[in-house]
Amino acid sequence: MAHKATRSSFGEAIVKLGEKDPQIVVLDADLGKSTMTGDFAKKFPERYFEFGIAEQNMISTASGLALAGKIPFATSFACFLVGRYENIRMSVAYSRANVKLVGTHAGVGIGEDGYSQMGTEDIALLRSLPDFVILQPADDRETQAAVQWASLYKGPVYLRFTRQKVHDVHDDHYQFKFGKGDILKSASSKDGHKAKVAIFTTGGVVYNSLKAAEELDKEGIDSSVINIHTIKPLDKDLVLELARAHKQIVSIEDHSIIGGLGSAIAEIVAEAGISTKLLRLGVKEFGYSGSPEDLYEKFGFSIPKIKQSILSFITTESK
Amino acid sequence: MLREMKAKSAQNAFKLEEEEIKRLKEISRDLRVWIIRMLAEAGSGHPGGSLSAIDILTVLYFHTLRHRPQEPQWPLRDRFILSKGHGVPALYACLAKAGYFPMEDLLTLRKVSSILQGHPVAETVPGIEASTGSLGQGLSIAQGFALASKMDGTHYRVFSMIGDGETQEGQIWETAMSAAKWQLENLIVFLDYNKGQIDGPVKEIMDLEPLASKWTSFNWDVQEIDGHDIAQILNAIDRTRGIPGKPHLIIAHTIKGKGVSFMEHKIEWHGKAPTKEERDAAIREIEDTPI
Description:
The complex is a heterodimer. Helices cover about 40% and strands about 20% of the residues of chain A.
């Protein structure tokens, strides 16, 4: 089972794509060693732009490059990119520029560096921009596919990657379908009987969510697990279908519980008048230093913690 | 004989230039009238910084830029990015006059169904290259175009205009560093130094001086001109051709509200539209001023 950070998968994918498409350019703000753009820089020095520590200049320049026909991938830590939200809003979104923003170091899963380097509100901010696509792949294969898709799509895309290594949740046959929820596990209930719980999950916590669901199986809790790689536009039809077919819904994301996947699901479900209860698991406070494993335990993203949270949610709701 | 021919040819060139300057002056006078008309019709907007910029924009759109108003997306066109987006009435007036869209559209400025938003928007208006209006960003966007032009070997030039108040933005100085790093000699930037910003005189709000030496020390080619003197604007642009390996800054000393005596040097005309009476008085003055 491969074990690779999605930022590393991005670094490999962008080199392959760069070989095929000469319009692809990569921009960095003194974090190339961390955003994994080094191979691209070595291979295509004339298509690689190092801005130094100047993210707003990088983002707006990416817009100019895109408007001139290039396909720029502008990279930094997720928090530093959306720290320049207004540049994304004006130079990229409002100019309809074909810019791909690559935010690595998503969530508390980055570990020891602590909150200042953690992207924990990026999805919330970018979800508010019209026509902005947000992709968060869960493993190596999905990352390769998502980066390729983004390079072919015309329009602003935000790609969110992990610092930490993640386990594969897909095999060689996996096909990335933009805008479609990826069902990793289907509940077994049939014939009009509602299954217990639908678990929507994304990015670095997908593997643990899936494993926790398998643990719940042993407790007789029938669940579905859906990997949401396309957070915007969200697969509304699937969310509604599963919200109707399950007694409860859970969202799990290494991001603030405000404005991320859980919020997006809540909006869809509430607007449709569906009364299924929702538990949002996510980041509820400032992050802090610690090993990724310790932090996942602390923030409730470890396999036992996810299992425990879902169990107590289901029990409470069943009373 | 040869000397006579040379003298005559120089004289002809001088005469041609005189005629060209006169032609450009007539256009900018006409566009000043349109700026006043459109702002009065809109009931809001920025006359001060539009009137300070219009002579430079006139030279760009009616003399310098290689562009095709009937084919706005022509790939080899020179680009112009108005980084000080609030000066857009001056740009709209140039675009309409050049034929990008009908002159009458100017009178729909800032109205709900108009393509002419209060600040520039890419794609929706023919001839507008990028959305601007949040100060500091347009210069970086222009830099992106200039990088692409060099990468593609298309050699189109990229012109931009930044405001003096805008120069207080940190992002301007980030781009000042990077454009010099990449030796963007195809990037020509005008700084509309009209000395006023919303809250007061630039000098009091956040003084930029010494301005020219700041840019020189950032490795830019720097010139200072009178931004209302057509000959100086033409010469400054010409001069940039001979200086390789450096981006170009032309500090244009201008007058906020230039051409309308009751607006000139007055901060309150930064972002206020003229009433009908003020409009008529302003147009009368512009039209009565000899070229």
